[in-house]
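Worked example

This section walks through a single chain of length 667. The input is the sequence exactly as stored; nothing has been trimmed or padded.
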Amino acid sequence: MPPAVPQHCPTPRELDDLELLVSGALHPTQRYDEPGSPVTLALPPAIDAAAREAGQVELVDPEGLPLARVAVPGGEIEPLSHAQFGPFRHLYLSPATARAELAGRTFVPVTDALTSGQVEALRAHGPVALVALVGTGTPELSSVALVRATLRAAELLDDAAVLAVPLASHDDPEADHELGVRVLATYAGPDPVVGLVEPGEDDDLPAGVAEIVEEDQPAPDRRGLVLFFTGLSGSGKSTLARALMDRLLEQGGRTLTSLDGDVVRRNLSAGLTFSKEDRETNIRRIGWVAAEISRHGGVAVCSPIAPYDETRQQVRAMVDDAGGAFFLVHVATPLEECERRDRKGLYAKARRGEIPEFTGISSPYEEPADADVVVDTTGRTIEDALDDVIAALRTTGFLDLTTPVLTQGAPPLVEHGGPPGPDRVETPAPDDGVRAEGVSRLGASAPRTSTSGGEAAPLVGQGGTPGPDRVETPAPDSRPGAEEADAPLNVLFVCTANICRSPFMELLARHLAGPDANVVFSGAGTHGFQAHAMDDVMAATLAPRGVTDVASFASRPLDRDLLEQADVVLTAEAAHRTFILDDHPQLFRKVFTLGQFAETVQALDPDLSGRELVTEAARRRGAADAGLDVRDPYRQGAEAAETAAAGIERLLRVVVPALLGARETAR
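Given that input, the structure is written out below as tokens.
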């Protein structure tokens, strides 16, 4: 039985070459790898070995459609089919068809949008055939935009036809020029070929053409963007990436997608191992999704380790091919510092040989030579390190996050409904013209700007007639804030089903706070049951801690109203926080893991409490590290329940006194 013929999907450049070889456009070149020809076919080693054994390889398009069989060695081509779909496919004429249908015209190669001056110059040539050279790497515009712009320019001429020819670049100017001359001569046959005149300094684009170019090549600040953070485990790249996302969300104006954490692990990485091959596959998957986001003008933020330069270059190429911009951040925190920070003990396990192929220990990290910015987070705050990234982004023109949010047209700190408080401004009647959109209950979507006494300084007009961006200052005896200051703080605990961890948090927090606390503790589950009792095993851990009202508890599912009513949301795991923020990214300032919030408030001024503490924690929070999670003890037995209970109690004995302003007097 003869060996099976292997299949291979060539690169875009090789596919373009295949189309020209099969159509005869490269005559006299008829196959790949002729001596001295830039038209080559590179097969991966495994495919090459199988092809040599079978004597040929079958080339397929990205969708798996067989296009041709190529002899190995030799390079002779047996066509099987040709591409039938794609934008403007009806304009991809073979040389024979072009000579038959367009005879008598002057053939004009086009690689960029035609200017007004070039259109006028073409009138002297009578009927013309505008040949859009749309091959990989050749046109200044994307291939589709070049055809669209050429068609629009053709409408301005008396008699102009348009055809598309996939003449690719081979990164050899002399060889590419020779191929171009040969291809144009093959298409034109006996008809003349003329080049375009050089555009003058004041030459502009015709209106319709200019619109197409602007759409295809938007200004840097409107271009799709991939922010790619790379560095060792523990370098701070994820924390830095999250801080940048927060700043972007605060400013608004761009659609933003995070390709990091549990969302990626559930949806893109499922089934992959931690082998080198699978880790690189994971990076390529992330890169492909990020490139597609950039294709449509969005911003994607990724923070994988991505230790190998080859894979990072593949991601960069994907983004470039999609028309997006790739911004590489190398978080160059030294290995020693990363090991010092390692709360999970991963580096220690790697040094003991318990974790194979661990980057930095038993597997290399190839430092990028093409990073747009290099940041070492050693001994620096995240805010300080973030400033380096923001400054570099501003230099590129992709994003300007240096201007205060309020001066860039963000809505003032106005909230619909509820009593006004020290960090809020009363919502005026609709005809006052004050915008009141997208502001969270905590007023954390823009920096706090209050004076002592709680008056919102920059947002209040000090006399004169209130304008569309001003609110009348109330008289001192009617100053807003008293009712909000007296209103209880709403704390919402969240786990999965709301029958195990979050009810323990709710009931123990209520017990620790005491009956007179001006705080309301409640709970819900991301996949919560409706009106179920607390898990018996977990409930049993409350009695030794003095909690006796377990029977009154009833579970409930999490919903939007609960999230919006809460002043702060504390989740059991980072996965719960991600679940919430995937659907409600505007709430990112008030959603923490319990461990993250405890770690954050420990570093804050002990005089802060209540809403002031929550607002400051939102501004200075640390990362939602999975190492701070409270793991699910459900159906794991009494020992697992007690471990979870002890961990939650330890965290609540930090959080509850801090919220009450009684850190030294906790029960």
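What to look for: The domain at 7-79 is CATH 3.10.400.10 (Sulfate adenylyltransferase).
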